[in-house]
Amino acid sequence: MTDATMNTTSAHSDFGDYVALLKPRVMSLVVFTAAVGLIVAPGGMNPVLAFASILFIALGAGASGSLNMWWDADIDRIMKRTQSRPVPSGKVSANNAMLVGLWMSVLSVGMLGLASNWLAAGLLAFTIFFYAVVYSMWLKRSTPQNIVIGGAAGAFPPMVGWAAATGSVSIEAIGMFMLIFMWTPPHFWALALFMNEDYSKAGVPMLTVTHGKRTTRNHILAYTILLTPFCIGLAFTSIGGPLYFAMSVILSAMFLQGAVKLYRRVEADAEADKYAAERKVFRFSLFYLFLLFAALLIETALRAFDLHWSAWPQVF
């Protein structure tokens, strides 16, 4: 970061600027997947403690976002997509962003440990560390595999939620982790295809920058294929069922169809229509993940009201 960025004052900051510092859109996905992990876990949890646990997981996600904005202020000022963020726009100083991130990290981990258990708190602490240090400070600027390895940070929340409810980690929690982990590369590479100029200017070695868009399209298809068995496989765990199975098959087929279309794209055509297909795949990937986790919630509700098909095979 430059001295100018570090010395930016926050005299004109308001509450909304500090909310934006926490990356609320990213936080909403974290909260949702963590809540699903907690709700679908066996045994149940006191509603007050469950709400508190989700709240502290959300604070942990916000801490990660704040630390990321502190560290990435220099490149955020270069990229059009991120120029309006609180730190590069001068609404919040980098020092304040760092302090908010550190204090929220300590608060969220400590309070989650008290509200649920220390396994969940430890997983949350590792998630914050992984996103802020391993991904933001190391991987993001050093390797085109940044989003592949760094995707683990976004995959931990349902595991944290599960651990908060059960005090353990099981095959179901690992299955939800792997679903998000394998989903992350094609999701972000679709974004990188139409935001490549931003990443190139900022010197971020996304796959589109280091290996080109043709290779990126190939990787999107490969990872979407690899994602499919993890997606469908969750149907045959204790949290899955026929509804989730049907949803996973349909959504996987649609995701694969989009990935194949990108694979077959000629770059001249993509530029001519301003990457319409790439934008469509990126938007669909968000609905894909939301609908799959929503289906897990519905399966749990069906079991609670004894409306579940008892003959459904549980393989894992």
Task: Write a concise synopsis of the structure shown.
With 316 residues, the chain is mainly alpha-helical. It has 17 helices and no strands. The protein folds into 2 domains: 14-168, UbiA prenyltransferase (Tetracycline Repressor, domain 2), CATH 1.10.357; 170-316.
What does this structure look like?
- With 316 residues, the chain is an all-alpha fold.
- The protein has 2 domains: 14-168, Tetracycline Repressor, domain 2 (Orthogonal Bundle); 170-316.
- Helices cover 74% and strands 0% of the residues.
- It contains 17 helices and no strands.
- It has helices at residues 3-6, 15-21, 24-40, 47-71, 73-76, 94-115, 118-139, 146-150, 152-155, 157-166, 171-194, 196-202, 207-210, 212-233, 242-263, 267-272, 276-304.
- 47% of the residues are buried.
